[in-house]
Design goal:
The chain is α/β, with parallel strands linked by helices. The protein has one domain. It contains 5 helices and 9 strands. The strands form 2 sheets. A 5-stranded mixed sheet has the order 1-2-3-7-9. The longest helix has 36 residues. It is globular and about 80 Å long. The relative contact order is 0.15.
């Protein structure tokens, strides 16, 4: 009994310090996210937002998958951002426009400007091609159960959508959206690490192939 009484104060002190550290880290994370949300609206602030919310290995930027994984090699374009989490892998296409956006489910999107309508590829059609290629890439490492989600992230919140779509997100909705996905666990910690390593390996190989092709 005397022994328990002697060690109880140090144990309580350590527990209190750990609790304070946990609270400090949670508050710091929220402040970083809030700071990022209030930053100027460009791709750098989106990186800051994601870096504050996710481990560095979980977020990939400007990803280009090898052409061999695409049914149509012409679809092998750059993926703006990719997040690996327990809810699966989320492919993010950043939409850097503001104004009235015509966003049909099929076909090109268009933004109305003073010069007329500027069309650009439908991010969900491009995302479907990326998702197919990504599944093939992950299968080379024995990962078959990853849920792959595609979202369009509005760089500017001053956008009027023609059609509502729950996967077209303003920046403030992105992190809650990922956290909602994480409620359904598809990827364990080991699989997340393996998926990250596979992406790094194959994207590095794809970059080398492009470099060699240019030199020929």
């Amino acid at each position: 009994m005397e022994f328990i009484k002697s060690i109880l104060p140090p144990v309580l002190t350590v527990a209190a310090l750990l609790l304070l550290l946990f609270i400090f880290l949670r508050i710091r994370k929220q402040l970083l996210i809030k700071s990022a949300l209030g930053a100027p609206r460009d791709r750098h602030y989106i990186r800051g937002l994601l870096s504050a919310a996710f481990p560095s290995r979980a977020v990939k930027y400007s990803v280009r998958l090898p052409r061999k994984f695409y049914s149509d090699p012409a679809a092998a374009l750059v993926i703006d951002c990719m997040i690996i989490s327990r809810g699966g892998i989320t492919i993010i296409d950043i939409i850097p426009v503001k104004g009235a956006l015509d966003n049909p489910y099929v076909g090109e999107w268009g933004i109305k400007t003073a010069e007329g309508v500027q069309n650009f590829p439908n991010p969900f059609e491009a995302g479907a091609a990326h998702a197919e290629a990504l599944r093939k890439l992950l299968a080379t490492g024995g990962i078959y159960n990853a849920a792959i989600n595609v979202v369009a992230l509005l760089q500017n919140e001053r956008v009027l959508l023609h059609y509502n779509n729950e996967k077209i997100l303003p920046p403030a909705r992105l992190i809650p959206y990922i956290h909602d996905l994480d409620q359904n666990r598809f990827l364990g910690g080991a699989e997340q690490k393996k998926a990250s390593e596979l992406l790094e390996r194959f994207t590095a190989r794809a970059a080398l192939e492009r470099k060699n092709h240019k030199q020929q």
